[in-house]
């Protein structure tokens, strides 16, 4: 009763001590802020590609270089990895460590397949003489798609590290929090990939 | 003095109980979604990905119409991912997540459209190198 009365007291407009936050309560919001700033990095790379994407410098254009079936396969890999990570999270909520680890492993395999296909595509392009130094179009293409690939690479390393952590310590609160951060990161990368396959590959084929 | 101390204690206690309850509730209802939610998101994503690829690979429609459709589908699929995979809603983190997202979308909109618009006009209004040297 006295607490309520005091809250309404106009003279007391700040708390005598900082409110106590439980450990890790602000991590998810903080990580979301990081993702938003990462989003801005990708927006700048998309803008760069949008501006330079038609400057071929007499070199090959999207139609001669891109193979849509390969891109479709890559898109499928990333989409599958998204839903398998979702299943890992559901099992984590239910406290099933084995199932969580299993789905995480499947997610890692899909992620690895995505990276292998992308590496194959890149080496194929460079082998054909369409490396990043060939034209402004290819420079911006390699930077944009390469940055996304680099994110997936680090996501994959993070995933393996977390699997080791879960194996050693179990599904403790800290590990759950870490898995939730990686969940946001992983789904976010799939979101960026929607932009990549639409603006870079599909729109490129329409030119 | 003693009244203040008592009031503070009461408040802290109150907040603790409240927070604990909220966290619990939050974790189970919103943060992870449901199996059904993931399947809906996945099914929608498959459809929204397959149709643009099919349109471009077969070239059934005219180029401008195809371009419009694949852009629209990409926008919708991004929304699907945000809702079903990232579990974004107006209540997450007390509304701060969606505020950050909307702010980011606005900045991206300004930066992307601004860059493309300005650079397109620069390109079209710039004299070609050959023409510039002819004028001297």
Question: Could you describe the 3D structure shown?
Answer:
The complex is a heterodimer of chains A (207) and B (136). Chain A is an all-alpha fold and 207 residues long. Helix content of chain A is 78%, strand content 0%. In chain A, helix 2 (27-52) packs parallel to helix 7, helix 4 runs antiparallel to helix 5 (97-127) and helix 4 packs antiparallel against helix 7 (173-206). Chain A is globular and about 65 Å long. Chain A starts with a helix and ends with a helix. The model of chain A is unreliable at 1-5 (pLDDT under 50). Chain B is mainly alpha-helical and 136 residues long. In chain B, helix 2 runs antiparallel to helix 3 (63-85). Chain B is flat. At the A-B interface, helix 1, helix 2, helix 4 and helix 7 of A face helix 1, helix 2, helix 3 and helix 4 of B.
> What are the low-pLDDT stretches of chain A, counting only 5+ consecutive residues below 50?
1-5
The sequence of SSEs of chain B as H and E is HHHHH
Write the H/E string of chain A, N to C: HHHHHHH
Q: How large is the count of helical segments of chain A?
A: 7
Tell me the radius of gyration of chain A.
23 Å
Uncertain stretches of 5 or more adjacent residues of chain B:
1-30
Identify the overall geometry of chain A.
Answer: globular
Q: Tell me which oligomeric state these chains represent.
A: heterodimer
Output mean pLDDT of chain A: 89
Percent helix range of chain A: over 70%
Indicate the mean pLDDT of chain B.
Answer: 76
Distance between the termini of chain A: 71 Å
**What structural category characterises the helix and strand content of chain A?**
mainly alpha
Please tell me what the overall shape of chain B is.
flat
Largest interface: A-B, 55 and 58 residues
Largest sheet of chain A: none
Structural class of chain B: mainly alpha
